[in-house]
């Protein structure tokens, strides 16, 4: 049975990815901060194992990796993310940088370091980092300094991991899921969670080592860094 481990599985894009993979017969290790409050996640059909995981808790990430030692994880999906304060130039809250970077940047690297052996022993050998076009230096706009910088940083981590893990046959890519109707994306967002996940699933199905170190939008577009 192919296996996915995903963070931020209790709502938004992570919940829909979990639903979609579980429906297709995957075993999903679905990680979230508060399993007790994850009502939709807890009632999904399929083989969904819910784990309590705050991605900023290094000891908890390491403990989960030990608990799953020996298992093959085909896809490690670093999906959990936060936007941080929605502020513009001259409004920056400097205390807000660390928590956003801790979730959006440090955690994907930490999970890759803790779960590399699980991924290496799988068939698909994929590490997927949920980024954003807002982290593209080539396509970026103004404002949202902290979020943009955090996604640019996770893009660099994606690229660097793609070099370091290529020898183990692991493919590492970054995704832009579209502007999606979630708590983060808001009600004016243009892409439904279902369409975003449908697009992402289509790309994931076709990923090979030739895509290692790439940055893809949910609609298949290859994005510039
Ligand atoms: N929506 C968009 O338009 C859009 C666009 C580009 C990129 N993205 C990216 O896509 C990913 C998913 O976003 P979304 O739209 O689904 O957002 P969302 O609905 O706000 O969900 C965010 C998820 O991240 C989890 N999370 C936050 N901090 C965490 C932590 N410390 N430990 C574990 N989980 C944590 C949340 O859990 P709690 O419920 O516990 O808070 C929630 O499950 C993010 O990386 C985001 O940056 C989204």
Structure description:
This protein has a single domain (3-217), classed as Rossmann fold (3-Layer(aba) Sandwich). α1 (12-23) packs across α6 and α3 runs parallel beside α4 (97-120). β4 (75-78), α4 and β5 (126-130) form a beta-alpha-beta unit. It is α/β, with parallel strands linked by helices and 225 residues long. The model has no long low-confidence stretch (mean pLDDT 98). Strands 3-2-1-4-5-6-7 form a seven-stranded parallel β-sheet, sandwiched between helices. The radius of gyration is 16 Å and the shape is globular. The protein is 37% helix and 16% strand. Bound molecules: NADP nicotinamide-adenine-dinucleotide phosphate. NADP nicotinamide-adenine-dinucleotide phosphate binds next to α1.
């Amino acid at each position: 049975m192919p296996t996915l481990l995903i963070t931020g599985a209790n709502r938004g894009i992570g919940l829909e990815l979990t639903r979609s993979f579980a429906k297709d017969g995957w075993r999903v290790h679905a990680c979230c901060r508060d399993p007790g409050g994850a009502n939709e996640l807890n009632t999904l059909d399929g083989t969904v194992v819910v784990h309590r995981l705050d991605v900023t808790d290094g000891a908890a990430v390491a403990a989960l990796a030990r608990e799953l030692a020996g298992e093959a994880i085909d896809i490690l999906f670093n999906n959990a993310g936060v936007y941080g304060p929605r502020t513009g130039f001259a409004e920056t809250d400097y205390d807000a940088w660390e928590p956003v970077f801790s979730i959006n940047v440090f955690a994907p690297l930490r999970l890759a370091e803790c779960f590399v052996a699980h991924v290496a022993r799988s068939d698909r050998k994929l590490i997927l980092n949920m980024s954003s076009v807002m982290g593209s230096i080539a396509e970026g706009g103004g404002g949202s300094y902290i979020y943009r910088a955090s996604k640019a940083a996770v893009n660099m981590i994606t690229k660097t991991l793609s070099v370091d893990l290529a020898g183990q046959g692991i493919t590492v890519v970054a995704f832009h899921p579209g502007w999606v109707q979630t708590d983060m994306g808001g009600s004016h967002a243009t892409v439904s969670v279902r369409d975003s996940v449908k697009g992402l699933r289509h790309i994931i199905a076709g990923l090979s080592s030739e895509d290692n170190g790439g940055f893809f939008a949910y609609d298949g577009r290859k994005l510039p860094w």
